[in-house]
Amino acid sequence: MRPDLFHALQAKRASRRRSIDQWFRRLGLFLTLTTLGILGILLLNLAMNGLARIDWNFLSSFPSRRAGEAGVLSAWVGTLLLMMVTAGAAIPFGLAAGIYLEEYAPKNRWTDFVEINIANLAGVPSILYGLMALGLFVYQFQFGQSVLAGGLALACLVLPIVIVATREALRTIPSSIREAAFALGATRWQAVWHHLLPYSTGGIATGVILAMSRAIGESAPLITIGALTFIAFLPPAPWVDHVPFVSFDWLFSPFTALPIQMFNWVSRPGEEFQANAAAAGLILMVITLSMNAAAILLRRRAQRNITW
Predict the structure, then answer these.
(1) Quick check: 308 pLDDT over 60?
(2) What whole-number distance in Å separates Cα of residue 283 and Cα of residue 46?
(3) 132 & 185 share domain
(4) 151 and 21, same structural domain?
(5) Do residues 34 and 94 both lie within one domain?
(6) How far apart are CA 67 and CA 266, in angstroms?
(7) pLDDT beyond 90 at 292
(8) Do 61 and 190 share a domain, yes or no?
(9) Using one digit for the tens of pLDDT, what is the confidence trace for 26-44?
(10) Which letter, b or e, does each residue of 3-31 get, where b requires 16 or more Cβ atoms within 10 Å of its Cβ?
(11) 65, 71, 136, 231 — which has fewest CB within 10 A?
(12) Is residue 22's pLDDT more than 70?
């Protein structure tokens, strides 16, 4: 081929690639703005319908049959307690399982079978986790319709997400990091603890954020295990004024949550209850975004202290 024709063909191909890159960039920008716009419309709609109902009385009052006197105290307290149990169960077990499968488990048919099933579990409908929790935690382990049963149900729901995110984050670490640690005499656990986990903090934290964001808005598993739709009391305090100054009675207390309270209000006739549901939804969004923001800040702070 003549040199001038070859250079012309190369220039044409480069121009085509640049054009495709520009179109893809525009498409990505359009989809991003569309997603943010949908979220903005949702928040605006909730704010227009429920912002006027949010005040200190609404946050500090129990539910009531009178819409004007109803509040979400028991609902948002129950949501926070559920998230504590969910995070305390899902994050350690998810990290441990992800680390084992990626760094320790032998590569054979059995581990392939386990990996496939973990990936499939991430897409199982949440109502099935509720049925499993009803039979296992409520009846078999005798936890009853408690915060512990609800938190463990949500932990089982999001556990595959944490495992998959942990494995993918560990896979992004170059193999040279592992080889250098082993060459200096480090054990496999020392390599994982001092190098792999710190370097993969960002990816793991992203998976945890997504997992907790899904858990906080779930209602089907909580309804299945018998979460209360009307509750006029709070679980016992997690601390006491005598030794050992810590109490776990709240784990076995009945509970409700913001999604359950919203479901109860939406099912009732009357615009005032609809406004209460919108206000509860706005509070749920604020709690979710606050949790995500805090997790992102912790992730960035951890990443600043990492040097390759």
Answers:
(1) no
(2) 10
(3) yes
(4) no
(5) no
(6) 12
(7) no
(8) yes
(9) 999 999 999 989 988 888 8
(10) eeeeeeeeeeeeeeeeeeeeeeeeeeeee
(11) 65
(12) yes
Based on the fold, state whether residues 71 and 23 are members of the same structural domain: no
- Residue in the structure block whose two tokens are 């926070």: 80
CB 265 within 8 A of CB 63: no
What's the rounded Cα separation, in Å, for the pair 227 and 218?
Answer: 12
Q: Average pLDDT, stretch 244-266? A: 86
pLDDT in tens, 241-252: 777 778 888 889
Name the one residue in this structure whose structure tokens are 């920008």: 29
Residues 33 and 136 in one domain: no
Q: Count of residues for the chain?
A: 308
Task: Give the span between the Cα atoms of 137 and 141, in whole angstroms.
Answer: 5
- Please give, one letter per residue, the 3-state secondary structure of the chain: CCHHHHHHHHHHHHHHHHHHHHHHHHHHHHHHHHHHHHHHHHHHHHHHHHHHHCCHHHHHCCCCCCHHHCCCHHHHHHHHHHHHHHHHHHHHHHHHHHHHHHHHCCCCHHHHHHHHHHHHHCCCCHHHHHHHHHHHHHHHCCCCCCHHHHHHHHHHHHHHHHHHHHHHHHHCCCHHHHHHHHHCCCCHHHHHHHHHHHHCHHHHHHHHHHHHHHHHCCCHHHHHHCCCCCCCCCCCCCECCCCCCECCHHHHCCCCCHHHHHHHHHCCCCHHHHHHHHHHHHHHHHHHHHHHHHHHHHHHHHHHCCCC
Whether 7 and 93 map to the same domain: the answer is no
Q: 284 and 258 in contact (C-beta within 8 Å)?
A: yes
202 burial class (0-12, 13-18, 19+ CB within 10 angstroms)? middle
Q: What is the pTM of this model?
A: 0.84
Specify whether 62 is located in the same domain as 42.
no
Residue range of the domain that includes 23: 1-53
Domain count, the chain: 2
- What's the CATH code of the domain at 199? 1.10.3720.10
- The position carrying tokens 């993969």 is 200
